[in-house]
Amino acid sequence: MPEVPQFTKIQELIYELPIERVMKKNVITVSPETSILELKETLRINRISGAPVLDNGRLVGIISIEDLLKALLEGDLHSPVRKRMTTHPITVLEKESVVEAVKKFSQHKVGRLLVVNEQGDLVGILTGGDITRGLLEAISLDYHAEEVRRYRASHIFEDIVSDQTSLLLKYKVQAHDFKSGGTASSKLKRALERLGCAPDTVRRVAISAYEAEMNLIIHADQGGEVIAELRPERIRLTFVDRGPGIPDVEKALSPGFSTAPNWIRELGFGAGMGLNNIKRCADSMKLESKVGHGTRLEIIIYLRPELGEEFNPLKRNPQESS
Amino acid sequence: MANIAHLLGPVELETVKLKEIINTVEGTLLTKQLKQDLDIKTCGAADLMSDALSLMKPGSLLITGLVNLQSIRTAEMADLAAIIFVRGKIPGPDAIDLANELGIPLIASHIGMYELCGRLYKAGLVPTMH
Questions:
Q1: Mean pLDDT confidence for A46-74
Q2: What is the ipTM of this complex?
């Protein structure tokens, strides 16, 4: 793991994580009339080093083990907490982010902060240790979610040994279903992300699949299919339909040529740029069509391992031909 | 004098926060309160989704008058950061739901395309299209 992204992740969390997520909720409190002797027992039994002082539920101060030690040294064991407590405890709001607490810790040099809600009621207590623990938990949760996402998908390949392994994904596209336009490409995009494909490659596949999916919706009168074949070195996308077919393939490929009706243009498509876009994203493209039979568009996008782009799961296959 | 700009390495572009952008265009956020601190560098305007798909860099802001589901899909496929709808147009609930699901902020502004582009250009967003 490189160190820099880890660092920014923590920075991000400090700003995102609310104090209520990391604070201790069951706060042990004492009343202003509690004696120093009773306080000593409370701190000892609960193994804590300080406690907020509540007067009928209202926060009036805080008393720490240092205050207790001073009282013990002076033999002042029977006076009430009220006489020894700090009256203006430093508080933070439960909804504020952890960064606010970090600021207050360094500003006031205190060991604990009292957490209050907007009405000023005490809802929790926070130490530096709570923040560290909360951040570590959040990071490990995040990391775990990422792990699960990536590796569950790749497990399919781990035990499979063959001379050539590929994964075939097929999506159906309904004719003229403009509302659902993009759902097939969206699913394909997510699948590639889960397989650990590089963002640039995912984007090229998503854009070309989306343009071709829209073409199927606009033109193919019985709908069609999107087929993605994934191999360690490349992705092949095939779009097939059963008509009406393109009379002049050459012409269909020229930028700006379109047979789409006006209502499609009003929806932001059909300007005759789709096939050109696909061509720009692809490493190779082949368009075949026969009027009355259908159209088949095939594009290939190569992964670029020299740039660190590869399908790790497929690449791991030890039988890979050399 | 020879142009030495290429020797200086990539220029660090200035970024504008999403919440500043919303203020600049007097806009309303239509999606959940997410990513207000998102840094955006580049921006483009298009009503033709193929233009947005082919010309816009990932992470760019899309300005459009097109309020159907396809503008959201376009942002998804091209990894665009957010969308501003001009001249008081508001997408339907299905488009807003999809944007929430995908985490793409949508902003509605009453300002027209020409003026809105001018304001954001002045605010420091760089053209994404070339």
A1: 90
A2: 0.87
